[in-house]
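Much of our argument rests on the idea that a fold can be written as discrete symbols. In the encoding step, the backbone of a single protein was reduced to a row of integers, each denoting a local shape. This step matters because it turns folding into a mapping between discrete strings. For completeness, the protein is quoted in full, as a sequence line and a line of structure tokens:
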Amino acid sequence: MKIVSWFSAGITSTIATMLALKKYGHKNVDIIFFETGAHHKDNKRFIRECEEILFKKKIEIERNEKYKDLYDVLSRGFINSPGGAYCTHQLKKEVRKKLQKTRIWDNQIFGFEFERKEINRAIKFKEQNPETKPLFPLIEFKLNKKACITILESYGVRVPRMYELGYHNNNCIGCVKGGIGYWNKIRRDFPYRFKKMAEIEREVGATCLKEGGEEGSERLYLDTLDPDRGRELEPITGECGVVCATEFMEFMDDRVELILKGQLSFDDLGSEALG
């Protein structure tokens, strides 16, 4: 049995990968990380410790050679859309699809956690991408992000620096899915990254933020954002892995509650159940 675990250097994908290695064996699990050129420099330390302490296995680094980094993608005119972040699509999703054409895996591991919105994402992902035959170890073992942090720390491994700074995820510095509070924190912690993203927004005429709630249509440019707005950090929608969280957030599936209560498992979501 050959498995691939999509490792994002986030806490949840880390523990999901550990569980996969334990269950399926080191020889049977490939670990792949997508480089975007915009992560915190501490990622090198965290990836090294994951390889040496947690996984006892080398992590494969893949990237989309068409782009230099995140900013190269965004400067070509696209930032966000109803279907998700364009950077996730180009730097992760497209690379995953390319790999799947040349490498055969029986199943793919995703770090969706045991939490209502994440379970909903997992259900929708399995429905829309049945060819991946996805496995969700954290949902299987009922582990949320806090539990994953506890496991990580029990091995003596520090969480990635972005978490220590108060961010909810270890995404790129300046994630296009972040909210107002998130971007004002980026302004304070990483002023150069904030300025760079603000300049790109003006160049392409697109924005990370919108006014008017979740379905807001008015563009809110970063260089016009009031520094005092959203002082409390708003959580990003999810770990930035090979799929974008915004793709699956519109409707809540009725089966989420059944999974939370232990009345339904992902093994029961076969082709007939998925329609």
About this structure: Residues 3-66+92-161+254-269 form a domain with the Rossmann fold fold (CATH 3.40.50.620). The mean pLDDT is 87. The chain has twelve helices and nine strands.
